[in-house]
Amino acid sequence: MPEDQDWEAYKVPPTRTPVGERATSVPNPVDILQTVFNYVVDAPVTFVREWIERQQAKNKFYYYHQKFRRVPDLSECLEGDYLCFYEAEAQWRRDRMVDQEIVAIVRERLGACNQREGPNQFQNCAKEVKLLAQVTKAYQDRYGDLGVHGTARTCLMKQKHRMMEERKAQENASQ
């Protein structure tokens, strides 16, 4: 723009907006309705909502930390108690998913250690390798050879057969 501006051509807006003067002394009905609405509807609703939010802030519920109560094992269920069978099966499935996640987390930690250590992984990640071996052995002992359609009953039978084999091995070793 040129140095010498023509102030008449380019008028500067006023610095303050003028307030219109009231022509009458009668209050505006819109202001009255707004005030009534604020006191009758908005204020109580806001008060109740803030009170509820304060109560909920005291008792926070974290859905991702849900804790299920432990139910009796399948071996503790009475004969014909189908609800107990169902609950034990659901508990077994949750336990299996938790054990799968434990194995996955330990495997992920070992992979991260191997990536981080590079050529020194065998030396510096020995603790993770040992932990992964323990976790996978425990998972394999409990859930191995059950397949996709494994149930709490087949898992219990597998553990029973393994205990019987261990008992026979002890008796043969002591004789």
Task: Give the helix tally.
Answer: 5
Structural class: mainly alpha
Q: What's the rounded overall pLDDT mean?
A: 87
Largest sheet: none
> Could you state the order of secondary-structure elements as H and E?
HHHHH
Protein name: NADH dehydrogenase [ubiquinone] 1 beta subcomplex subunit 10
Keywords: Electron transport, Membrane, Mitochondrion, Mitochondrion inner membrane, Respiratory chain, Transport
Membrane topology: Peripheral membrane protein
Family: Belongs to the complex I NDUFB10 subunit family.
List keywords for this structure.
175 residues, single chain, 63% helix, mainly alpha
Task: Write up what this structure looks like.
Belongs to the complex I NDUFB10 subunit family. Keywords: Electron transport, Membrane, Mitochondrion, Mitochondrion inner membrane, Respiratory chain, Transport. This is NADH dehydrogenase [ubiquinone] 1 beta subcomplex subunit 10. The protein has 175 residues and is an all-alpha fold. The chain folds into 2 domains: 27-63; 82-173, no CATH class. Helix content is 63%, strand content 0%. It is built from 5 helices and no strands. The protein has helices spanning 29-58, 82-117, 121-124, 126-143, 152-174. The longest helix is centred in the middle third of the chain and has 36 residues, at 82-117. The model has no long low-confidence stretch (mean pLDDT 87).
